[in-house]
Specification:
Length: 238
């Protein structure tokens, strides 16, 4: 078993008197894909906001063996923790192409970056057609694809996706998840937060279930997909 890339230990998140996350523990090995599922308000976003340095927390989070406690979101980003937040976080007033270029701003290999951007445009003709238009004019699904591809251009060591299917039409959800499914082959370490638990379990190796700030269940995603209780509560099946 390799050294974990990410180790969350007795994580607590409070907002004033509200405790959103309660003493949760989990770890992620390099190259592993995992999902955090649970109902609205379970504490999933609070957990990933802590991991990206955006949210003060109790307990500890170690990344590459080092506590992130005193490190800024910018420093963590430079070290490879990249999040696509709920609502996507693209730059609406930059063009589609400029958004992709922003993803690669820390890279020095500009020839490879250009080739990767060309490959994205080949695969997603809508993004190619609109490369010189403002990103804010794209549909929600196109913005999500843009955000995901921008994140991948930054060559993340740990990619965090917060609700990538939120509010998207089914055909766009399919496209977004086809990109996510490929991350396994590319061995991108992934932490996926998703309301659509079935899809999330299908594209990951491991899963943790949160409920009211607690981690209430964990296991291989394939097992959770067939677990009666999980199916009943989180997959909306009888
Ligand atoms: P969702 O899918 O709705 O984003 P979640 O599982 O990601 O849910 P969190 O967003 O982490 O859950 O919220 C956990 C709890 O913390 C909820 O009770 C929520 O109301 C509360 N909370 C989240 N952000 C804040 C905030 N900025 N101030 C106060 N309470 C907050």
């Amino acid at each position: 078993m390799s050294e974990p890339l990410l180790c969350v230990e007795k994580l607590d998140v409070h907002y004033g008197g509200i405790q959103a996350v309660r003493q949760i523990d989990f770890s992620l090995a390099p190259g592993e894909q995992a999902t955090l599922i649970g109902a609205n308000g379970a504490g999933k976003s609070s957990t990933v906001r802590a991991i990206t340095g955006l949210q003060p927390f109790g307990g500890d989070i170690r990344y590459q063996g080092r506590s992130i406690k005193k490190r800024s979101p910018e420093a963590l980003l430079r070290d490879g923790i990249v999040m696509v937040p709920e609502g996507r976080g693209i730059f609406h007033r930059l063009t589609v192409l400029e958004n992709l270029q922003m993803g690669a701003w820390l890279r020095r290999d500009s020839v490879t970056v250009r080739a990767e951007i060309d490959a994205i445009f080949q695969r997603f003709p809508r993004l190619a057609e609109r490369q010189n238009q403002l990103a804010g004019l794209l549909s929600g699904g196109e913005q999500q694809l843009l955000a995901l591809n921008r994140a991948l251009l930054s060559k993340p060591r740990l990619l965090i996706l917060d609700e990538p299917s939120m509010g998207l039409a089914p055909v766009m959800v399919e496209q977004v998840f086809s990109v996510i499914a490929e991350l396994r082959e590319a061995q991108v370490t992934l932490l996926l937060i998703e309301q659509n638990a079935r899809l999330a379990l299908e594209v990951t190796d491991r899963a943790w279930v949160m409920d009211s700030g607690n981690l209430v269940h964990s296991g291989p995603s394939a097992e959770l997909l067939t677990d009666d209780a999980i199916q009943h509560i989180y997959l909306g099946e009888a």
